[in-house]
Design a protein that fits this description.
Keywords: Oxidoreductase. By secondary structure, this protein is of the alpha+beta class. Helix content is 34%, strand content 16%. The longest helix has 18 residues. Bound molecules: flavin mononucleotide.
């Protein structure tokens, strides 16, 4: 089986019913990344976008550990991913997104806030031509130990970040997964 980038786009790129910003129209979560390195200035912009995310009580309850392909810490992150998520080892950058459980007797927003920060990062990355895929399935205990993650930081998702891979060169089983349709429910907002 063969597929071009255009075939993948036909299936995976959003087909919005109404006008949306370019980054949303282009975003999808690929499993096929190019290993092309990301320039430092782009990495800085991507994390800067997360920094300006709104958060409950302005607690900013997030922390990101990240590593570049080729580094020991990158391999450590990869070793915590299940077989199912090992496609991520091709990406030039892996990010471990952690929440900080700040509550202090108030309503707890930390998971919500981390999600918002990850989305800010994702949209900034998309704006710069990079794709992301979040992975919630990993060995958390092993990751905490291997990366020496601080006690207050709770790893929640690992994010693969990079340019889209070349679909002319892709493992067949991965291609099959990449050709999965990307349905969206239609009924999710009601005028009351
Ligand atoms: C919290 C979270 C956890 C996820 N975990 C995984 C995962 O472990 N493995 C994987 O391949 N994709 C994972 N995904 C990616 C989703 O499957 C993907 O975002 C969803 O199918 C919608 O596709 P789209 O992002 O292309 O719109 C996760 C996404 C989120 C937000």
């Amino acid at each position: 089986m063969k597929a071009t980038k255009e075939d993948i786009f036909k299936i995976r790129k959003p087909q919005p019913r109404y006008s949306v910003i370019k980054e949303i129209e282009e975003r999808f979560s690929p499993r096929h990344f190019s290993s092309q390195p990301i320039p430092e200035k782009d990495i800085s912009s991507i994390f800067e976008a997360a920094r300006w995310t709104p958060s409950g009580w302005n607690f900013q309850p997030w922390y990101f550990y990240w590593a570049k392909k080729g580094e020991q810490s990158f391999e450590k992150i990869v070793s915590c991913l299940g077989e199912y998520n090992r496609y991520a080892e091709k990406a030039p950058i892996l990010v471990v997104a952690c929440f900080i459980e700040k509550v202090k007797g108030r309503k707890a927003y930390f998971r919500h806030d981390l999600g918002a920060a990850v989305m800010s990062l994702t949209l900034q990355a998309q704006h710069l031509g990079y794709y992301t895929r979040q992975m919630g399935e990993f060995d958390e205990k092993k990751l905490i130990k291997l990366l020496n993650i601080e006690k207050a930081h709770n790893p929640f998702v690992i994010i693969a970040l990079g340019k889209l891979g070349d679909y002319a060169v892709i493992d067949q089983s991965l291609l099959k997964r990449e050709l999965d349709p990307r349905p969206r429910k239609e009924d999710f907002a009601k005028k009351i």
